[in-house]
Structures are given as C-alpha cells and as structure tokens.
C-alpha cells in the first residue's frame, strides 16, 4: 500500500470519531498520521491508530442544521460541534476546498486559540495533505478541522507588530500570566488584563508585505521551537503548541490569497506568545541539564515515531522543518527533551 492510500484510510477510520474525547481533549489522530506518512513512517500508521483510537469518542450528533447566514451566532459554541461538522462536510462537498478555506480563514483566524490552538493545527495538517494530493478523504478532513475550529473558536487579545525586535527577542520578553494553577482557558482569560501583553505583541517587527510575513512567520516558529528546549518543563505538552500552531499557519499560506498573509502572521504570533505566557516556567533549565542533539534529523523522527505520543510526533515534524531551514541542532534537541518529559504511548 502506498503512502497516499495509507493516509486516506487513516482519515476514513478517524472520521468515524469526534474531534474531542474525555471532555474536550483534542483528537490528535489526523494530525499525527499526516506527519507520520509525510515523514516516511506510513508503515507505522495503522498500528499507531489501533492503540490511539481506543481513547476516542464517537462522532457527535448535531442539535439543528446550521445555515450559512447563522454562522456568527453559532461561532465558538461547543454545543453546536455536531452542527458545525455537518455544515463543513457539506461545504467541502459542494464547493472547491480552496474557496471554502478562503471564505472561512479570515472568519476563524481571530479565534486561533480554539481547542488550545488545535483547530488551526488540524486545519494546517489537512491543507498540507490537500496540497500534496486532493481527494474526498482529504477534503472531508479539512471539513472536520474547520468545523472543530468554528465550534471551539476562542480569541486572544491581538496587537499588531510595530516594533524592532526579532521573534526570539520578542518571545523572551513575553510576560507570564500570574495564575498558572488551572487549564488553558483560565490562563488565556488573564491575557486581557496582563500588564505588558500589548507591548510584548507590538515589540515584534512588522511585515511590510506577504513575502516578509511568510519569512517572519518562519522565524517565529524557529524562536518557539528553540525556546521549547530550555523551558519545556513548564508544560512539556502545552508548550509544544507555541511552535506547532504557527507552523500550521505557515503551511496553510500557499493555499490562501497573499492578501491574507500579513493578518495570518499577526494571529500566529499572538497564539505562540499566548501559549508561552500561559505555560512558560519561572526559570529556564540550566544548560547542563539539556540533552544534546542526535546525529541526524531522521534519527529524531524515528525517536518520535517509536515514542508514540502525538505531541512528540507533532513537535518533531515542526522541529525537522526548523532544522532543515536553519541547521540549528537545538531544534533536534528539543524533540529529545520532549520525548524525555512526555509519557510514552504504551505499546
């Protein structure tokens, strides 16, 4: 079986399940299998799914059909999750997927924190798969991703970049929320009253055009991936999303009009900074406590695949992109640290 068929079969299995389980934990299956297939580990996908799907819930039922003109009232309403999934299933069946994405991206982007950023992350993986090969299973996956994003839509306070700092320097100055005792919603709710939050977002240098926005977004991802290495102990799982959320946006840009790229940078930067503010530790780990980078990128993804945790797999996928573009070994070492801190998926 070729890799494309493996991914489509995995999507078909996963589309019988809901985007959340055990309350509102995100179903990472579609994101992880797309990364595994693209990174040459298609042979591992179905065995990985056999274990992962034991945790998942059934596809949720809707309350009432959602009409196109009613979308504003239902945005960010988790009770309408089934309705949103059905709505976007129809959208991607009846309209070109790029048209659906172009219509809904600017509507959903302000709510980039949806599902702890998993709405945009799942969308980014789906778009990446569609750009490689278009078929019904992949269009359906995009519909599932957009429906999940719409139902869990959650904004973070935005301030457009207007400073002179590069992403690494700007990220280092992001203030921490004062109360890190509860979940992500409680932490993100504190951003609107957090002293220094607007200034921290504005400190990033602006992008003058679409090309600069794309390049600056790549730098944001690099900064977040490298920042994970010494700070992962703050929350080994949640801090992964400071890098994987902007990576999802970057991977979506080729399918979007260039007029949407600068706004996409702003939202992706805010999401990365928000996760950092919510979960960064009080102090980074001492350099002597950090792992060295393995000898090759392939070795790192093999480590992630063997480990099995979906967050380690997704971080590895992002960090390999960073390493390919920058040659920074810290990006590979970040994956090693995540594997050491995050519990391994049982075999």
From TrEMBL:
<dbReference type="Pfam" id="PF14027">
    <property type="entry name" value="Questin_oxidase"/>
</dbReference>
<dbReference type="GO" id="GO:0016491">
    <property type="term" value="F:oxidoreductase activity"/>
</dbReference>
<protein>
    <submittedName>
        <fullName>DUF4243 domain-containing protein</fullName>
    </submittedName>
</protein>
<keyword id="KW-0560">Oxidoreductase</keyword>
<dbReference type="InterPro" id="IPR025337">
    <property type="entry name" value="Questin_oxidase-like"/>
</dbReference>
